[in-house]
Design goal:
Blueprint: E1 4-5, H1 26-33, H2 45-50, H3 61-66, E2 69-76, H4 89-98, E3 103-110, H5 114-123, E4 127-128, E5 130-135, H6 141-149, E6 153-155, E7 161-163, E8 170-172, E9 177-179, E10 181-188, H7 201-204, E11 212-220, H8 224-232, E12 237-238, E13 240-243, E14 261-263, E15 269-271, E16 280-282, E17 287-289, E18 291-298, H9 308-319, E19 322-330, H10 334-342, E20 347-348, E21 350-355, H11 361-370, E22 371-374, E23 377-380, E24 391-393, E25 411-412
Parallel strand pairs: 1-24, 2-3, 10-11, 18-19
Antiparallel strand pairs: 2-5, 4-8, 5-7, 6-7, 8-9, 10-13, 12-16, 13-15, 14-15, 16-17, 18-21, 19-25, 20-24, 21-23, 22-23
């Protein structure tokens, strides 16, 4: 239910109130943090979440006697760590948390040994590293249930559980190669001191599932090598990044990236304007893109509503706009009230943004949930993602019909 107050009267002095950025939807939060939306369930998310429980009670004598004995066998390669293979440690920890009374033993088997090859053949394994869980699984029904529910792998005829849904980096036995080793080129524009930074390799490691960048080559767009890349891929905005064709080996991630750039004929993925974080330099328009002006619609008679200063600080954190001018318009001015109502604004605070607003990915993806667009003005009317936000209903305010709708009467913040 919206927090709409009717608090007219003498405005009392209030302490500065900083409204914290609090998004309810994790996909939205991820987008606003600065990379892009990846709406894919973490491979081990279910099992880890379900095992994040309070410690089990102390074992009884009967529980100790009946405790499951489980063997966790890792099948891997001796150079897997050097190639940044997916680590099984977090999964093994989650497994052990499913039954704190069980007794666990961990064993590592290398693929190029007789035992390793025998296990690969027995279970028809296709990717490494993997995990085989064997032992008293008839006493570990909770583990089996979570394993299958999370689609981590299969249950075999001998009752063993096999990890088959393996995130990259992994080794493909048939192809005899490691999958998911992505190289990145950061095409910078060193002359642009105000341009936003591009994503770093560690940002990609935070995706779900994580993308492994094994190399990041930095090239300035003004160099011969940079110009060659811009011509090869028809790049029209810098700085940007180029991912090698191995990004396609992350089958659940690449389809979600289509709105951010293009997949080229050589398999490389190039981030275009739609996926860049302003400010960036448009080679087509020969200017910096991403400057925005903000006009805060407020009611100075509303004692519970946030001030323009509070809004500016909170919204800069939430939306990431590059604001070059802040002004406010008080709706107690009849012109401002009539103008706001003519735009479809029914409550304040609201914010009118003009400039390169549509250059921001958050606007392209979410603005229909955040506000309205009127004559190239992006009007933020839904500020519910700010914790503690209070509104003032302006549809109930007395209107002066003789006052025409016009431009806002503004003051500098």
């Amino acid at each position: 239910m919206e927090n709409i107050k009717k608090t007219h009267g003498k405005k009392t002095k209030k302490e500065s109130k900083i409204f914290k950025f609090s998004l309810k939807d994790k996909n939205t939060q991820f987008l606003l943090v600065g990379i892009f939306i990846i709406a894919v369930l973490a491979v081990f998310g279910i099992i880890i979440m379900q095992t994040n429980q309070s410690p089990a009670p102390e074992k009884t004598a009967q529980q100790t006697e009946e405790a499951a004995k489980l063997l966790l066998t890792e099948i891997t390669l001796d150079d897997c760590k050097k190639n940044k293979c997916f680590s099984l440690s977090s999964l093994e920890e989650a497994i052990k948390n499913t039954d704190l009374n069980a007794k666990y033993e961990t064993k590592t088997v290398l693929y190029d040994t007789e035992e390793g090859k025998a296990l690969v053949k027995k279970y028809n394994l296709t990717k490494l590293p993997t995990l085989v869980i064997s032992g008293d699984l008839d006493k570990a029904k909770e583990l089996e249930s979570q394993w299958l529910a999370a689609n981590l792998g299969t249950k075999e005829s001998d009752n063993s559980l096999i990890l088959r849904n393996i995130p990259n980096v992994s080794y493909d036995i048939e192809k005899n190669k490691y999958l998911g080793q992505v190289k990145m080129i950061t095409l910078s524009f060193n002359e642009c001191k105000e341009c936003a930074p591009t994503p770093k390799p560690e940002n990609f490691s935070q995706l779900v599932p994580p993308v492994t960048i094994i190399e990041n080559k930095k090239i300035d767009a003004t160099t011969d090598e940079g110009k060659e890349l811009m011509q090869k891929y028809s790049i029209t905005a810098v700085p940007t990044i180029i991912l090698s064709k191995e990004i396609a080996e992350y089958e659940t991630i690449l389809p979600t990236m289509g709105e951010l750039g293009t997949t080229e004929s050589d398999g490389s993925f190039v981030f275009r304007e739609s996926g860049l974080n302003p400010l960036y330099f448009s080679l087509t328009e020969q200017r910096l893109v991403g400057y925005v002006k903000a006009f805060y619609l407020i009611d100075s008679n509303c004692t519970a509503c946030p001030s323009p200063t509070d809004l500016n600080e909170a919204l800069n954190t939430a939306l990431g706009f590059k604001i070059v001018e802040n002004k406010y318009a008080d709706i107690k001015d009849p012109t401002n009230l009539n103008t706001a109502l003519s735009w479809g604004v029914t409550k304040v605070p609201a914010v009118v943004y003009v400039g390169d607003v549509n250059a921001y990915f958050v606007v392209k993806k979410l603005w229909d949930k955040l506000g309205i667009v009127k004559d190239e003005k992006y009007i933020l009317t839904n500020l519910d993602f700010l914790t503690g936000i209070q509104y003032e209903d302006i549809t109930t305010l007395p209107k002066q019909t003789e006052v025409n709708v016009g431009e806002l009467v503004v003051n500098t913040q």
